[in-house]
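Notes from hallway chat w/ T.B., transcribed later so I don't forget. T.B. wanted the structure written out for a chain they're using in a teaching module, and asked if we could keep both sequence and structure tokens in one place. Agreed to drop them here.
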Amino acid sequence: MTDPADRHTTEDRRAAWADAEASRRSTELDREEALRLLGSVSLGRIVFTQDALPAIRPVNHLLHHGEVVIRTHEGAALATALTGRPDGGGIVVAYEADAIDPATHCGWSVVVTGYCHLVTDPDDLAHYQALLHPWTDHRMEYALRIRPDLVTGLRLSRRAGTGGAV
């Protein structure tokens, strides 16, 4: 049996969400703005296929010449998928980063979809190793580049006249 106090709380939440949804709007970002926002944060999530299923890993990144660059280590699923390709080709991945305020639910989200390739040039690899520092205890031997073939993003903001920052 449902506790009436739980039902009241659930109903209050639904009403608050409905009010919040009515006071916010979603605006599509153009490619340039989406990439600018992506470059303004250092943490995101890479999405790839592992054993025919989607896999997601949090990673730090940088934006360099319009490409997303991440580092990974030997034995990591993504590194294994790329180093095991006989043709040396890339694999399709998605990369997502966001900055959304948990209290207001305002902010932005950007998704980049494209081919991911191993960085093989020693100078480029050294450059990325100097700029991207691991935040885990793994030694990061590899750098990966994601070419952003498809860039989508949205901004969640308050509607004019609803109070708070836009």
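Follow-up for T.B.: The domain at 27-158 is CATH 2.30.110.10 (Pnp Oxidase; Chain A). Might be a good example for the class.
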